[in-house]
Write a structure and sequence with these properties.
Blueprint: H1 3-15, H2 18-25, H3 29-43, E1 48-49, E2 58-59, H4 61-81, H5 83-87, E3 91-96, H6 98-103, H7 105-114, E4 120-125, H8 128-137, E5 142-145, E6 154-162, E7 164-169, E8 177-178, E9 189-190, H9 195-204, E10 213-214, H10 218-224, E11 230-234, H11 235-238, E12 246-251, E13 258-265, H12 271-284, E14 290-292, H13 295-298
Parallel strand pairs: 3-4, 3-5, 8-12, 9-10
Antiparallel strand pairs: 1-2, 5-13, 6-13, 6-14, 7-11, 7-12
Helix pairs in contact: 1-2, 1-3, 1-4, 2-3, 7-12
């Protein structure tokens, strides 16, 4: 069985709603439905009852019985992935959401390598839910996620908060502070940053209903910011863009700040994790409109 299919099924079970499950996994609803259908075909029986127009789902008897098997399968897969780490324990394993991996962690990793820390790094890019499960399963030592997710065996560390800004092509001539209502909806490059922002955008900015494009990756988003196209994004990402031919504007009535958290297993930190978080804190301290909370954990 494909692990993505198991994750899809268990997320649907947790949310009791396909649309909400797709949103939490940051994939389209058809893609999530296809994963579920593929899993059912492999198993040879349906897992949910499908009703037209229904929002809530009802599991079949087979679906109910399959839940503990799916969870056990995930655990077995996680244990299989841990074999190399069990052979060589001198590795610090980081699971991080794509935007942070792409734009913030490179400088953090460079600084960490200069500390002479004994543990090498392994960095995995994943969604927040997957990062949480990786730490729970022991396949990651630290997850960097947004928003916060709690686990029974995990410790949640507030990492930082950062304001949302507007990034546009250099030809846009936008002022240093902009009013969202003055932006052209058709010129938007939309990115699903985090649930509170997505809710704010739906409820507060109905005029931005026809984005220029919905960008599912950071590289695509950055490559498309040309001329007078624009994108709302966290300051911590905006000031790390590789491109310099962009304008960064503050928002007069801004969306909610992005809050980022670190997850680790309960217990004392290793020296390598303390060193990594110290480098992370130093990098965050250099970013405009960003407040780091990591200093409290590295003294």
């Amino acid at each position: 069985m494909d692990q993505d299919e198991l994750i899809a099924f268990l997320m649907i079970v947790n949310c009791n709603n396909i649309s909400l499950a797709a949103e939490k996994l940051y994939i389209s609803q058809p893609a999530l439905s296809n994963r579920l259908r593929s899993l059912e075909e492999k198993l040879g029986y349906p897992l949910i009852h499908r009703k037209k127009g229904g929002h809530n789902l009802m599991l079949t008897d087979e679906g109910k019985a399959f839940i503990p098997i799916a969870r056990k399968s995930q655990l077995l897969w996680a244990n299989a992935q841990r074999i190399p780490e069990q052979i060589n324990q001198n590795i610090l394993r980081i699971a991080s959401v794509s935007s942070i991996t792409t734009y913030i962690l490179p400088n953090v990793i460079r600084a960490y390598l200069k500390t002479g820390a004994n543990a090498s790094l392994r960095v995995l890019t994943c969604h927040s839910e997957e990062g949480c499960k990786s730490v729970e399963a022991g396949t990651a030592d630290l997850a960097i996620i947004s928003p916060d997710i709690y686990g029974n065996t995990l410790e949640t560390l507030p990492a930082y908060k950062t304001k949302m800004v507007c990034v546009s092509g250099i030809k846009s001539n936008l002022p240093k502070v902009i009013d969202i209502s003055t932006l052209i909806p058709e010129k938007e490059i939309q990115v699903p940053w985090f649930p509170d922002y997505d809710n704010w955008r739906r409820n507060t900015v109905p005029l931005v209903s026809k984005p220029y494009i919905f960008a599912g990756s950071m590289e695509l988003m950055e490559n498309l910011i040309d001329d007078d196209y624009w994108c709302l994004m966290p300051s911590a990402i905006a000031y790390h863009l590789r491109r310099k031919d962009v304008t960064i504007s503050k928002i007069s009535v801004p969306p909610p700040d992005q809050h980022v958290f670190c997850l680790k297993r309960q217990g004392p930190m290793s020296d390598s994790m303390c060193s990594f978080l110290g480098c992370f804190h130093q990098e965050l301290a250099t970013i405009k409109d960003t407040t780091s909370y990591l200093k409290a954990y590295i003294n």
